[in-house]
């Protein structure tokens, strides 16, 4: 279940076969942070348009990184059964040959993951490298020019490399040609890195890996060295170096090529990190980002979008977390009897999730996400027709009842309800906007207005004019509550916003129109007055 750098390359062929046979794949990410606090006022807001939210999120994605990525592969068996292969990949930016990457940590995100037992040692010490296409292009150029450089910042890695270099330097001074020595106790990263460093520094040696954790160093003549460098079986051949440095990006490319339906829960940030970390740096254009993601993954399903719709149309309790949604769907009251929803079985090598809940572990959340999709789709299929549903529905039947939700990714607290990756975004219907007129409290600002209403309910605030503020909520009951409780407030007059009455632009236009009308009237009157003779 937990795949580290040492076993990752060996796992790629098996992962490729399983993904190609899959009905769909579910993903989840754990991050070092969400939204950047620089610049100020970068928090998500109900006032955000899709473009504004994308630009805010883009700043966060560029600062923060993925600590863990979960992949759950759902394969349809012969009967009404899905086998699940769930994996955890700890990730860490590649330090080989690319510009050194800054890793930013958000205190609240780190505290949150720590609460759920996240292993930061695995993230920092055993993370699988990755790079996007721009970084790969730079590394390829450096390899061709022989000017690559490592940016490893780990003190432990530097100590291992220094020790190995010192050993070889001392040994080679007295060694004869064709003599060998063995460097031991290395990991996959060290095996490659040490060979590249030694070959670049010493022209009279040759290196080869010996098993998983050793490197053989041989003293050779310059002529012999040249012959070995031109050998097609060289383990440090440039394409093999690129394969190692790309790391998880190799698996990302397998997912892109397979074009399987990609499932997530509140997956907007997941998709942004996929684009930025494994494909290309995020573009400035929101529409270009949407086009790119749609080309990479033509079928997206966000279980948050699906379950939000079910809450409106069925007797489905309003819950927020993925684990709560999964628990409700598993309850006997919602499980259709004829036919019951498909059996979801975890493969033997990831059975831990069947025995123990592991919320906010990426592999577990990916498993929950795919399970929620299957159960939701089956429930929708059973309730979409009065006719009997066959005992073993195909996944294509599930996709058919999910058609209205395909490529609609949930948009948290904003001007739209979901992002449509295959068309135009539909506007969101919010409760009435409120306007607050301040009297007798000079110098009030947005933060003070927010604090005033915070104890009662949650609103986003935006200043309209010197003494007026707009309040926006996504809950009708909050609007009714504020209108009732502030009806007779001595300093804050709260009313429903009317554009023709409260808009500063409309007020300015009316004032200008009034002045123009007055001057026109004066000109007319003066023009008709009798002249003095």
Automatic annotation (TrEMBL):
Which Pfam family name is an example for this entry?
CAF1
GO molecular function terms listed in the Swiss-Prot or TrEMBL record: 3'-5'-RNA exonuclease activity; RNA binding
A cellular component term, taken from the record's GO annotations:
endoplasmic reticulum
Query: InterPro entries, alphabetically?
Result: CAF1_poly(A)_ribonucleases (IPR051181), RNase_CAF1 (IPR006941), RNaseH-like_sf (IPR012337), RNaseH_sf (IPR036397)
Sorted alphabetically, the Gene Ontology BP terms of this entry are:
nuclear-transcribed mRNA poly(A) tail shortening; priRNA 3'-end processing; siRNA 3'-end processing
Signal sequence range? none
What residue ranges carry the coiled-coil annotation?
Answer: none
Q: Which family does it belong to?
A: Belongs to the CAF1 family.
Q: What is this protein called?
A: PNDC1 ribonuclease
Q: Specify the species.
A: Grallaria varia
Lineage of the organism: Eukaryota, Metazoa, Chordata, Craniata, Vertebrata
